[in-house]
Amino acid sequence: MKQYEAVIGLEVHVELATKTKIFCGCSTEFGGAPNTHTCPVCTGMPGSLPVLNKKVVEFALKAGIAANCKVSRYCKFDRKNYFYPDNPQNYQISQLYLPICRNGWVEIETSAGKKKVRIHEMHMEEDAGKLIHDEWEDCSLVDYNRSGVPLIEIVSEPDMENAEEVIAYLEKLRCMMQYLGVSDCKLQEGSMRADVNLSVREAGTRAMGTRTEMKNLNSFKAIARAIEGERERQIELLETGRAVMQETRRWDDNKESSYTMRSKEDAKDYRYFPDPDLPPIHISEAWINDVCASIPELREEKQERYQKKYGLPAYDAGLLTESRALSELFEETAKVCGNAKKAANWFMGEVLRLMKEKSLEPEQLRFSPGHLADLILMVEKKEVSAQNAKRVFERVFEEDIDPVAYIEEQGMKIVEDTSLLNDVLNRILDENPGPFSELLGGKEKVFGFFVGKLMKELRGKASPDTVREALAKEIVKRS
Amino acid sequence: MDFEKLTALQLAEKIKQNQISVLDGVKQVFDQIQKNEPKLHAYLDIYKKDAYARAKQVEKGIADGTYTGLLAGVPIAIKDNICIKGKKTTCASKILENFIPQYDAEVIKRLDSAGLIIIGKTNMDEFAMGSTTETSAYGVTRNPWNPEHVPGGSSGGSCAAVASGEAYLALGSDTGGSIRQPSSYCGITGIKPTYGTVSRYGLIAYASSLDQIGPVGKDTADCAALLEIIAGHDRKDSTSIERQDLDFFKSLNGSVAGMKFGVPKEYLSEGLEPDVKDAFMETLKTLTRQGAIVEFFSMKTTEYMIPAYYIIASAEASSNLERFDGVKYGYRGADYEGLHDMYKKTRTEGFGEEVKRRIMLGSFVLSSGYYDAYYQKALKTKALIKKEFDQAFRKYDVLLAPAAPYTAPKIGESLKNPLAMYLGDIYTVAVNLCGLPGITVPCGIDQGGLPIGVQMIGECFMEKKILRAAKCYEMARGAFPSPWKEAKEYETI
Amino acid sequence: MSKMIDEETIENVCILAKLSLNEEEKKKAREDMQRILDYVEKLEELDTGNAEPLSHIFGDKNVFREDIVTNDDAREAMLFNAPRAKEWQYQVPKTIL
Q: How many CB pairs under 8 A join A and B?
């Protein structure tokens, strides 16, 4: 059998995190009751007109510049005409002829090493409404709450070869968008969606095969499965002497297979033309400079800084910068407690453990970095035992309690009261002459017996280390 | 009292001076409607009850100083492609037979705050596509001068209403001549403002890059006063222009002495009816006598105006009218099987023949493989036409043209040959392509007793120049007869 | 010669525009479109060489709105005209899903 390789390009849709829709003042909030975020503009009422949200342009510029794109100083919106009920005007306002950004790239890292994926273009467009199937009446119902939510579509060059690269590319984009604050990129809520363009060719050849476009990929897992499935389907076709049809296919993740979306009624001729309702956009040098200045430190730079400035291992720096939210929590904690290394240990250990245990995303974390910093400082000052501190942190993590007050209340605070320690020590040794003589006789086990007894009596007023130390001294003294 | 001859401004003045009540003005209009409407059919909907209620309100508002404008208390008719909250707005199409907008067009808000009284909605060509008002799904409107003839279009209902005294004023819309041509056919005055001067919010789009709402009235002063009310920047319309010089009414004083008028030679060649040509030449003489300088010049792109216009207008229309699909509003076809069948039945049954013709043409010129040859080529042609107008305006203050090559055709003649009908728009479409302001003023009557109009075209934002020219010409011409008068003599009102 | 409008072209345009015509209407549509296209073919004579396609007459100024929520829940008004609605949604024939 011949060897084949896949050639993959992606069209990624990212919903922008603006407060309002792209062309009207309706809220973009997710999950409202059907059609509660709609107005004449986003339901395509006759006579309504679109007015562009400036923030959408700013966010698109941010994303484009961060992905090393060339910004079009002059761009326009075009209408993409097709009939479907989720699209109230039966045309989508998008950009074809003059997209806002072109010719960029991002770097991805896979087990095979680092690689650049080129970005063909990024353009702004409006999202469609939501269709749900009504089993009762066997019809569909349309909710236009999402209609007009701003999107950027990021079109890559066909630079990827396998699912691992595709996932790495998507992770990269997601991380970048989150850092930029332009999108939360939640696949499950549909705020990040990817269509996969895939073709296969004989390994080593250069000509491109016929490609298909795969839609309805709702998770990274589905994307990986769809890529493998489509690759095999196309190879199978070629191996049996059949041709691959250029078509759009829909992935069914339950059946783990795809089917064609072509129908006689879909002419796939979108008749794009400049939208006469929206004047062209002029992007000045000054505006571009402002946007450049507003781009925050992105993951790569952060990672590097964590290694250099904080002396963290590359692995830790990688995990801590996986999301902007987590890195911000970490940096704030490190700043307040003044010890980045210790803070990093807490994040790598307790924070990540609890996140995993409770399956929380970094954005969902509710504890104040100041509270964690307080806790770290108390451990450092031996004011609480490490074991107790971990227990207290669980409460901080969940309820964001004030750990200092809590430790006091619970009597977990270690007060190094030497006179009390000495009194109790002497009393206990005097009350237990038998075991003490065994200890002096070299029976090591009895040491633990005394430590336990002492700790119980002192009830957290001294740390185990201090108790051990004092006991050892007393043995030397009395022997 | 017989005050049907009054202009809107005169009526408003008499209302202000308590010589006529607002109610009387409204009543007079409804009397006229009752008398003429069975014959004319200028209206699609009449708001008698609302108008009387509103009249009382306005009467009070004028008395207490709420409404101080030049046209407070004047009854006005609205073309049925302009949305009024809670009022059926059909675009004279079956597909919107039951559509009741839940929002007002920006112009309606402006009329309300200026204290005008909306009388009803006027007939038009379906979706403003047509030059005769015959493509209306609700029957033709007849020309008040001669009921055998069309009133022109697409704002035929608005123009017929004003010409017949069924309204003092009206709003029309102009995409390729739809105010200027019916104004000419009905012997009244109408303005197509500079693109972006009047908000399009709430105007149901035909071709968005060309559409403008404009005033229709008995004379230039009425139109200027109404334009002043409806013009102004609107944040809801991205193509709305922020401009300061909107005090049009004041610009009516002055003379044309020394003003330079240009006449494109090509506009006077074949196809121009002799009566229209004679009236037009007479107009040039009248202007010259007033001290104007009139020159002929060549407009080489003339023969490309109609092709470019119909490609661009149809392309935009095909897209603008996609939203009429039976999902959100309007007519939904019956007995459909599945989604696409519903779309097809809805649109096939809901749209009339002319609309379908333009939708099909527009879909074709945008379709894959033809975009460059037709649509793109038309946009380039538009650029060249604009360049030629720019050059002309370096030499001339105002350009003069007939409003149409002939007077109102007989009912039933035009739709037999759509292409021939399109060619009749030759003098008006370029104004829309280039965003220019244009005004039509009556300038004569043909042998058949039908009115003829002259068109004055200005550079973008130069409404004041054409208004001044139109006003001067009007004064020199003398009063123009009205169709409802028995004697068609010239007489000073 | 301008493009010959054949039956297939009309069929295709009908799919794009969501119209269905009977045979007679199709024939008429073909003739009408052919006549108009033959006429607009005139544009071919015009040398538009360096001209930039002019899509917007004015457009040298950016027009934006600020990202501020201005609209309340208006679903009642938005659904007022719906030919069919159910549970605050527009009801349509089943879409292929």
A: 101
Tell me which chain B residue has its CA closest to the CA of residue A264: B340
Any A CB within 8 A of B203 CB? yes
The C-alpha of A138 sits at a distance from chain C's nearest C-alpha, in angstroms, of 6
Strands B398-402 and B293-297, bridge-based pairing: unpaired
> pLDDT of A293-331, one tens digit each?
999 999 999 999 999 999 999 999 999 998 889 999 999
CA of A6 vs chain C CAs: smallest distance (Å): 28
Residue of A28, A35, A263 to mutate for C, most C C-beta atoms under 10 A: A35
Q: Does B323 touch chain A (CB under 8 A)?
A: yes
Mean pLDDT of successive 10-residue stretches along chain C, which has 97 residues: 83 96 95 94 92 93 97 95 96 84
Confidence category of residue A265, pLDDT binned at 50, 70, 90: low
ipTM higher than the 0.95 cut:
yes
Range of the domain at A40: 4-288
Q: How does DSSP assign B280-331, residue by residue?
A: HHHHHHHHHHTT-EEEEE--TTHHHHHHHHHHHHHHHHHHHGGG-SSSSSS-
Rounded to whole angstroms, the Cα distance separating B56 from B167 reads 18
Last-in-domain residue among A359, A381, A409: A409
Of B178, B183, B318, B414, the catalytic one is: B178
Residue of B nearest to C38 (CA): B307
Distance CA B207, CA B209 (A): 6
Q: Do B226 and B111 touch, CB atoms closer than 8 A?
A: no
Q: What is the pTM of this model?
A: 0.91
Second-level CATH architecture of C7-45: Orthogonal Bundle (1.10)
In angstroms, what separates the C-alpha of B337 from chain A's closest C-alpha? 11
pLDDT on residue A267: 65
Report the number of distinct structural domains present in chain A: 3
What would be the CATH architecture of the domain defined by B1-493? Alpha-Beta Complex (3.90)
